[in-house]
């Protein structure tokens, strides 16, 4: 589902779109919310209503990894990256680990 597909889906499914808008955190900028909303919409049909909290948690894991550089288990990151495949995040920050920074400094 591309960004245009997301917009088409929202136009055709107003009730679902309005429900998903309720999951936006007050702290989320448009830059963070729009890709997370796309993540939720892309994967919504793969989760039953009783599993919605799980989907929302996975969307936060993905967003936290992309935008804040939070680290999680390899298995969890592989899962959310697979679920987010094709989502384009403009101007995503690039994070370096402490080890990468130290290694670069030692190479001077």
From TrEMBL:
Residues in XRN2-binding (XTBD) domain copies: 20-108
Family: Belongs to the CARF family.
Protein name: XRN2-binding (XTBD) domain-containing protein
Organism encoding this protein: Astatotilapia calliptera (Eastern happy)
């Amino acid at each position: 589902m591309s960004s245009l597909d997301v917009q088409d889906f929202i136009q055709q499914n107003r009730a679902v779109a309005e429900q998903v808008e309720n999951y936006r955190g007050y702290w989320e900028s448009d830059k963070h919310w729009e890709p997370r909303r796309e993540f939720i919409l892309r994967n919504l049909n793969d989760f039953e209503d009783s599993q919605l909290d799980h989907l929302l948690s996975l969307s936060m894991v993905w967003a936290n990894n992309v935008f804040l550089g939070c680290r999680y288990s390899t298995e969890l990151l592989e899962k959310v990256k697979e679920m987010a495949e094709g989502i384009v995040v403009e101007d995503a920050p690039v994070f370096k680990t402490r080890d990468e920074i130290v290694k670069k400094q030692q190479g001077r």
